[in-house]
Amino acid sequence: MLLCAAIGLALLVTGAWSLPRPSALVPSSAPAIGAAPARASASPGEPAASSPAAPPTTEPAQAQGVLVADTGPGTYEEAKVSVPSTTDEGRLYRFDVRVEKGLDLDPDAVARALEKTLDDPRSWRSTGRVRFALVAAGETADLHAYVVTPGTTDKLCAPLLTRGEVSCRAGDKVVLNAKRWVLGADAYGTDVAAYREYLVNHEFGHALGHSHVGCPRTGQPSPVMLQQTKGLQGCTANPWPSVTKG
């Protein structure tokens, strides 16, 4: 017994049984390493000075084999396809398409997806006042659609706050965040194709002069100019301007 007590006293003196220093303790509220960042809550229409920039994401966005890095080179591959409008009614808006280099997205395929959405009878042409035609790079265009990394989205949209999460319209640029293009949003679940239709109609709607609106009534299809990426406010997901009632 005397020998055990002597050994214990020696260990205490040398520090072998001492507790960790407080600075080495990790708070229980600390996020797990590699955890996804919190979803942005700011509107793209807020002034840049109203809130600090969001921290960079910890991992690239990935779905269906497509990887979206946080940032890209800020240079673009241009779509070379042209598709005329299938209607003669309304003012014609010509648009071209650019995809940031390094994204695993085919510019021509992206351009055709945008054209298919905008030429759908349920899209803005349903008003009878506007129509869209896809033009190839180098041709005269009224609007320029960009599909770019979150970091480049922030740069093209500044001073609007997109925080690497949402998209915007800036002048004659319709800027679509590739992270959203690939992943979609919670409001649409796994239906990324329908979310892309909403994304295109919403941001081109801004180019036509439409502003954000709220949900008019719980259970009603969401107006396309509601910020559905951030939530539905009680409405149901709806990608089309012409759909107003369930």
TrEMBL record:
InterPro entries: DUF3152, MetalloPept_cat_dom_sf. The keyword Signal applies. Residues 35-61 are annotated as: Disordered. Keywords: Signal. Residues 65-233 form the DUF3152 domain. Pfam families: DUF3152. Residues 35-52 have a biased composition (Low complexity). Residues 1-18 form the signal peptide. The keyword Signal applies. This is DUF3152 domain-containing protein.
